[in-house]
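Two records follow; treat each independently.
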Amino acid sequence: MRSSSNPAFRNLPNTGGYAGFQTQPGYHQGGPGFGGYQQPVSQERPMTVDDVVTKTALTLGTALVVGAITAVLVLGGSISPYPPMIIGLIAGLVLSLVVIFKRTPNPALVLGYSAAEGLFLGAITGVFEAFVPGIAIQAILGTFLVFGAMLVVYKTGAVKVTPRLTKWIIGATAGAAGLILVNLVLSLFGVDLGLRSNEATPLAVGISLLFIGIAAFNFLLDFDQADQMIRQGTPAKYAWYVAFGLMTTLVWLYLEILRLLYMFQSSD
């Protein structure tokens, strides 16, 4: 299986396929697959597209419901945005690490992560919505349009997920993460590079567009990983990993689109 920039997929228990399952009873080697994948005999049902769609819908729905409630409470002045923002950020980070390094998929952890992200994003969205009414629905629609467009691109084969493209996307994602980290550290010391300015400067807009593009291309790797897992007969429970992986990319994309929209509309 090709590598991925998404940690949810990079830490799946496999060694050139899903050989990590070979010690489980009821598995045998042979049949179609990649890297000597141990085909399930009877113990576990293989993953299907419906599994991926259902788990992703549950994960995304949890985030949307929690986020919507949080945003409404923040906008109404019922709660301050900072407690849910901090709690959601910390809880989301902790739960994501547990999900990534835990060897067995856990629906409760994935849904808990989704709820934490909903809390975090809802608080941020409430703040942005207070300054620019209507920006939340624009950001949500923009995120789903990009997601849908990349799904069409992948399904039609307009862009092939080759090893070379995979390496490029992973490198670009690592570079973006490094740039964000460096900018954050420097900002703590009062150094402003202008990379993440709230004003629509050419540099800030260019960086946001670049990050949106990288996040969009990450969907291609997510779709490809899910497709390979289905074709290899990966146990159905690992659909939760796919849902988690897609959720992490959606969160990043949404934040970047929200920031870009704010830069343009707040300066009007």
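The next record belongs to a different protein.
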Amino acid sequence: MAEARARRHPVDLAEPAVTRGLLARLRLTALLHRFDERHVRAAFMLVNGFVTIALLGVLAWISRQPFVFPSLGPTAFLFFFNPSSPSATPRNAIVGHAIGIACGYASLVLFGLEHAGAATAVGVTPPRVLAAALSFAFTGSLMILARAAHPPAGATTLLISLGAITAPPHLLLIEVAVALLALQAIGINRLAGLDYPLWARRSADS
């Protein structure tokens, strides 16, 4: 019955080990006997998600630089909810976002949109449509070729090709923010006792 349930809800049941490991390390396993494990895991995601993004937000506030951007949220969720997934390794996240950044900016340059403003402000034009479509298509293809699939990178490339983030220094900060988030993932997942990689898993699959 447990196997049938896992097949019906493969993602939902994917990573109880993170929460269990942290509770064991903090000597709070009694919570699993007092409360439904789903609720305990939800509480973990609530606290950890807040702390993770808040730390980067504080860094952004102090430095006055954009260390927080929308596609960082899905990356954080992968890191802490399903860390055994190949797409949740530091390598896939860092390489995947780097590909997304490069493809997004290249599409802006190709269609002369580096200084055109965000699509949400100036509207969508045929060159913008082509830039967005091309950036997303190349991001997906190159991630597959590089064996660095990381779905949130698809959002990163669209943020750039749609003009939300275009300044080269800010694009570099996106990659720095991903690297900082990866360091948090390494620390928390290893604290939970998981065999979480420092860079990539031994398997080349992605």
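Discussion point: The chain has one domain: 2-191. How would you locate this feature using only the token line?
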